[in-house]
Amino acid sequence: MASSHLTIFICSLVLLPLVFPSTAAHDETAPTEPMKKKVDVVVEGMVYCQSCKYSGSWSLTGAKPIPSAKVSVVCKNSNKQVSFYKTYETDAYGYFYAQLDGFKMSNNVLDHPLHGCHVKLVSSPLTNCSLLSNVNYGLYGAPLRFKNKVLRGTHYEAVIYTAGPLAFRPARCTPESHV
């Protein structure tokens, strides 16, 4: 009886690594590399059509989101050279989520997204609302803000920066009559 238990035990030691490879003995001399966490830089924001009533101001009262509007994210390094440029399109609700694939920092302080990246208006699909406005510096580049928004996974992290809401304005606004 003892020899049959010994045979089963020996067979299980031999077969276990074949059935469950993760339980196989590892070479102790081989260095194990820890899994590197992938960290993405993301910029998010909204694009609106500014109400005629508030055209010329920074007010977004009565503004409507613009689906399929285009914005650009421009990042410059500490030497003021463009190190990243890409355009992004808003979703059906005027929201954009710009994952900065390929963004690199050579200087962790001066090339940081809060210092070196801006969002600019590019184009609006609405013919009746396609003029650029400077709401939140959309003409020259809206600065980014960090609001402690981070998505975390086991081997992934996305640090999300926010650009203030941007707006196009209507080409033709009928003046209000004050009779």
TrEMBL record:
The keyword Signal applies. One of its GO terms (cellular component) is cell periphery. Residues 1-25 form the signal peptide. One of its GO terms (biological process) is unidimensional cell growth. Keywords: Signal. The keyword Transferase does not apply. This is NON-CLASSICAL ARABINOGALACTAN PROTEIN 30-LIKE. It comes from Salix koriyanagi.
